[in-house]
Amino acid sequence: MGEGENVPVPGRWALSMLGYGNLAALVNDPRAQPRGWEEGHDVEGEAAAGGANCAVVPVVVRGVGLPVLVALRDVAPGQQLLRDYGAAWWRGHEAAWGVAEHAGLRVAAVMHPRGALEGLAP
Fold it and tell me: What φ, ψ does residue 95 adopt, rounded to 5°?
């Protein structure tokens, strides 16, 4: 998008993976700063792989390949499931993320339900 172009933005945005795929869509990546264009990002490197506590393993059953989520170590009840999406996954989303931020969308506003933002820093 060029400087000064208007982008249609609805009043409120929300992001939810429920209804798309299965519950594996709710497994997050351990990266704290995945914006590859910002200083201090952690897209590249081994830290994300070390923070993952599960992985997707392809399993073939009767000739059909199925993705199976497998724990890499013990996962305590209530602990968040984290898998390394890989640097290429984050790099592939940089353009869309940039468009959203150019339109004035904050990541926190997109990823949290209405009413949950009052306690978050701007």
Answer: -65, -45
Q: Are 75 and 32 in contact (CB under 8 A)?
A: no
Backbone angles phi, psi at 87, to 5 degrees: -60, -35
Q: Mind listing the pLDDT tens digit for each residue in 68-120?
A: 889 999 999 989 999 988 888 888 878 877 777 777 776 656 655 565 555 54
Domain ranges of the chain: 23-51+80-119
Q: Are 81 and 28 in contact (CB under 8 A)?
A: yes
Helix (H) or strand (E) holding 64: strand 64-71
Q: What is the sign, positive or negative, of the torsion defined by CA atoms of 69, 75, 80, 82?
A: negative
**Per-residue pLDDT reduced to its tens digit, 10-26:** 455 555 555 566 777 77
Task: Find tokens 């306690």 and name the residue.
Answer: 119
* Start-end of H helices in the chain: 47-51, 87-92, 94-102, 107-111
Residue 121: which H helix or E strand, with range? Answer: none
